[in-house]
Design brief:
single chain, alpha+beta, 3 domains, 4-stranded antiparallel sheet, 7 strands
Length: 241
């Protein structure tokens, strides 16, 4: 029912705002590129997969089948409920048995890869095949850690908040270290020190012109898995010249 409503809404939009197919595709690709670049530049590791939300929704609507595999296309949507987590204070993110679960969750991805790899008819030498499988597995482990298991565990962590504190503090300054792919955003927060932040948090502080003497409130939460994080943007309590 919901899927049919989405299709009907899509066709209604085309009827009200008709455009040639090529122009619609070009517009979609432009908007998708802008959306993706924003997340790729400003997103934390667990926010990056949200860059593919428009693509995953489009792929699901137009290429879904009846085998259930198409539901995996919607996985990037899981990043939306944790999009407002701009700072994770816990180092490492997960501790105890949860830290092991963080890697155990990658195993199904490897199983799925080997299932389809065994059913493929890719020719080549055994050395080339071995290097290809090892390379793909390393990519799956690396990407699965940041884009799959971290997302799932952070989502579970915030389903039940064990503790919540509104911290009145000040942001001394925000700054960037590194360049290109190694660029990292930081904030020097009174009482917390230097903490890694998302680019969205960085841009918000710059846009609001929050100075070192301005009093703000940060929402510090501890989830059911013990991971402590800051959600949302800082709320300005008092401006000081």
């Amino acid at each position: 029912m919901t899927e049919n409503m989405l299709f009907y809404s899509f066709y209604l939009l085309l009827a009200v705002f008709p455009m040639p197919e090529i122009e619609y595709f070009t517009l979609f690709m432009f908007l998708f590129a802008v959306w993706a670049v924003c997340f790729l530049i400003c997103g934390q590791s667990w926010q990056l997969i949200a860059a593919f939300v428009p693509f995953s929704l489009s792929a699901y609507l137009f290429y879904s089948d009846n085998f259930g595999w198409d539901l995996f296309l919607l996985f990037p949507i899981l990043a939306i409920p944790i999009f407002d987590i701009h700072i994770v204070l816990s180092r490492p993110k997960f501790k105890g048995i949860v830290a092991y679960i963080n890697y155990i969750l990658i195993i199904p991805l490897l199983v799925i890869y080997w299932y389809f790899a065994d059913n493929s008819n890719v020719s080549g030498t055994w050395i080339g095949t071995a290097f290809r499988h090892v390379g793909v597995c390393l990519i799956i482990i690396f990407a699965g850690k940041f884009w799959f298991s971290d997302v799932v565990l952070l989502l579970i962590n915030r389903l039940w908040i064990r503790d919540k504190v509104n911290l009145e503090t000040r942001i001394n300054n925000v700054f960037i270290t590194g360049a290109g792919k190694t660029r990292t955003f930081y904030a020097s927060i009174y009482q917390l020190g230097n903490v890694e932040i998302s680019g969205f948090f960085y841009q918000y502080v710059r846009f609001k012109k929050i100075g070192s003497q301005d009093k703000i409130v940060l929402k510090i939460k501890t989830g059911c898995l013990g991971t402590q994080f800051i959600s949302g943007f800082p709320k300005i309590l008092e401006r000081r010249l």
